[in-house]
Task: structure prediction
Amino acid sequence: MKKTVSVILAIVMIVSVSAFHTVALADEQHSVDFGSASWTVDGVVVTATMEDKDLTAGAVTVYDFDAIKLTGFDGGKMSVRVYAPDGFSAELEPNGDNEVSLGRPVDKNLVIPPEVRFEVEPGQGGDPGEGPGEGPGEEPGDRKFTVDFGTAKWTVNGVEVTAVSWGLDLTQGAVELEARDAIRINGLDSATMQVRVYAEDGFSAELEPNGDNEVSLGRPADENVHLPDTLRFVVEPKQGDASGELRVHVSDNILQMTPEELGASPEEFEMAVKQIRRNLSNYDKLFGVFEIRAERDGEEVHGESFEIRLDMTDALLGYEGFQLVRLNEDGLTAQETVALGQAEGKLVCELSQSGLYALVGDEIQSDVLLGDVDSNGKIEAADARLALRIAVGLEPEMGKGTPAYEAANVTEMEKGEVNAADARLILRRAVGFEDPEYGV
Result:
């Protein structure tokens, strides 16, 4: 009798595992990032769904034998993989209904980590004469590259674009990536921008984004290209075409670059920045210096108007009267100014000449008494306490743009975020101490 019961239980367990039901004895829990739960693979849209779960709402709790249904999946051309922050990856084996589970990796010896990212990607197969995973235009999925992303942030045509890859900090110098690793480009407009990688020997190649604005080093746009091991990653304006379309290029903020990037010594760079600030001292704030260039078919355009659209970032809050000041060729002397308007969260103007431009603005004048956070006409210890609550996020209704936030933001050094230093200075003023850093 006991033997019969054991056999029945074993059969139930086998059937349950095959159907991906969550009845396994070791049904481990995982936190899974599905991104948008949609992938474009070889031009085909593939989506992932689970019963009673929204896979697009950030990390989702998934058990080993929960069924993940893939719609549009082609097992002959695609594969399903999970990736962990430590570099671990494993392929999952779909059943006949195009369902996978974390408890069914292709390699039965693997144990899926508690935190993973879920991806549907091109399969690793190829023509008979090719190496594993090396179909036309594809690098082997496990091939590794050393990639320099710089700050992982670019300003392209006035739009800020950033690169992120799950589990990696792309801003910390050279990063090691596998060919299959997904790099998401936030802010990418594929109609006007392109993603390219460059090598020291002059090699360059474009990477082709999918429908989610993700690229990988294993999918260059040119099917015949083979990427070098060490690369520099860049998002830049798309190359001009024969149609003669006018293209506008806006560089990164030159004031945030390093002297080495500009080919100058630290002393030369510091002297130039001081000179620029001195020449623009009649404005309350210098936000940056940018090279703006209009081109058609690779040639600079002269005497033709073109529109500039810059992001209205948090750094610009509290300022008005924004202008672009054109600098002369040495980058130091102001030549002319153009006022910027605001539309759809952008600073907008028309220019008629390429060159170096400084973005400047004036502080919004206010009747707010700095330090009088509760607006009772006096600066008291209660104001310091309220400023500290704002700094730590306990007064959400007193956020940026409110009179209370403006009154709490007293430090001369950093007119940006309210912090504990603001509360300290308000308290010093309340008890009668003068402080040179108080107010602007």
Remarks:
- The chain has four domains: 2-122, 144-237, 250-363, 368-440.
